[in-house]
Amino acid sequence: MQTLLLAVTLLLLTSLAFRAGRKRAFAMADGAPRNLHSLPGYYGSWVALWSGLPAFAILIAWLMLEPSLVRTLVISDLPAAMQELPTEKIDVLINEVRNAAQGHATANPDLAIAADHYIRLRQIGFAAMTAVSVAMALAGAAFAYRRIEPQLRARPRVEATVNIFLVASSTVAIFTTVGIVLSLLFEAMRFFNMVGFIDFLFGLNWSPQMATRSDQVGSSGAFGMVPLFTGTMLITLISMVVALPLGLFSAIYMSEYAQPRIRAIAKPALEILAGIPTVVFGFFAVITVAPLIHSAGEVFGLAVASESAMAAGIVMGITLIPLISSLSDDVITAVPHSLREGAYGLGATKSETIKQVVLPAALPGIVGGVLLAVSRAIGETMIVVMAAGLSAKLTFNPLEAVTTVTVQIVTLLVGDTEFDSPKTLAAFALGLMLFAITLGLNVVALHIVQKYREKYD
Amino acid sequence: MNMVQPQGTAKVRSRGLDVFYGEKQALFGVDLDIRAGEVTALIGPSGCGKSTFLRCINRMNDLVDGARVAGSLTLDGDDIYDRSVDVVQLRAKVGMVFQKPNPFPKSIYDNVAYGPRIHGKAADQSELDEIVMTSLEKAGLLKEVKDRLQESGTGLSGGQQQRLCIARAIAVEPEIVLMDEPCSALDPIATAKVEELIDELRENYTIVIVTHSMQQAARVSQRTAFFHLGKLIEVGDTEQIFTNPQEPLTQGYITGRFG
Prior knowledge:
heterodimer; A: two-stranded antiparallel ribbon; 2 strands; 78% helix; 1% strand; B: Rossmann fold; six-stranded mixed sheet; MetI-like (chain A)
């Protein structure tokens, strides 16, 4: 609360600095901005940056350092006997001190003293930080304010600062990705220390358990990912068989045949489909599609499992229709009108023009869109968790229950998990494989789409 | 005031041709005859309706939403806008070359073979080869591309692309070739080549060319029609139009006073 108040105060100071800077620039220019190097607003922004940046830097640094600093000081004031305890015990003590500081009584008089100490330290620290940051805000503003003169190159400086902000923002995104990949990689390495890489990659059995005692019966786990990947591929294939024709045909209809009025209604309707959460599609798969396939199978005398690759694949295909359709629609519409006219001018019919000129020209873009859809299908989790089943059977029969990589990651990590058993670490290895595959597909897809773009611009 | 040609020599004949795009009228009662075996140039300032007239002849305007045509427009005496007319067959008879070269993203061979294929002009592969070669030859492109017929047509230079489009149009063996500012996207050398080609094609085809360049009209055409604000102002032999225009508007345009 106090911190929030301080932040608001600093913002207020910054905006005052902006106004002051702009006003001074106006005054320097005798009211005619053409006498200045930059527009007056840039002088204001420059002063505001000088005022705000150092102050907020101090605020953020304090927020990050304060807990460990206060902790060290509190520990150093505890009785010597307590200080010699192992780290975990000290952590417990510090927690108790914090609780006591928040008003919960503590039985230990030493800790009560420490709690008072803790409160006092935090108050002093906060007061000092407030003083310093406000002083910095004022000093920075004053420094910049006094340096304003018509020749000052305010705009390039402000723009350079903004540039740094932009770079920093994108760096955060990139480093997050790198961090996630690295953590996947390290955990996967730990897994591969326990289970052989070749066994994992080419093993035909998946039964992720580990013995808790060495004499346990049936204790040896098997970590072959092949059944999982065939499951994933099977469901992806089924979903593509559903999504590709439906998506592509609807895109052709929307872009080439639909009246503008129909298009205006149908396109947003299709986009609503894209907005439905996949968990809802999961219900749909379990409650409607799976029983339907089951009873349809009975009519033909086929044994269909109640959870089947078919049900999950069909429903996943439906979720991918909007993606394929809207991407294909975009590339089909982007085919230059002059190409269509060229074909019509030679006496081609509408369908000949579409089949022989428009679609071939749009093909690279369509392929790119389909690859994006495939990588989405491979990574899709919710629908398969609900509808595909859990049995890691190596089968290509779409009427049986299969399991996928994503489903297994979910089951491995749900519930209480210990992070030193291969069972849990296997999830990271699977995640890494999944990541590698979808990354590869996305790179190929983007490359194809880009190549296509270059052709007509 | 329009000079109407005696019947018999006219390949395309328009009488009182009005064209509307939605509410806007683009052509007002145009009476114009296009003679067989000649190059007719349509000139006039931008938006004067010359392209609209051109696109009526092969009904390209059908593709524009809200386009409507009134009056009569005939090809060899048959009404182009009659309900019984098959647009596909009409366009096989009336080929078109566009302002911007628009080869299909296919091989050079397939670009030229496209028209003959969809119209079933060739009985077998060797006949198709024959048509493709002859068309490329007629378009003056064969020498430059004969070793790379399987390469993409979009990889050619602008001038070559435009001659490829001309080869593609004449491969269907049309009777009329419409050209909508065929050189406006080309450099002077490529333009000279295309103009030369137009002159050669005149022997076998009736050509209608829309152009913004009066020099071009003077160089390649035998007859010139001047349009202004959707009306046909004057039509006559090219030499007469450029040396002795009858209408003050024509005079003003060709001397560069407006346009």
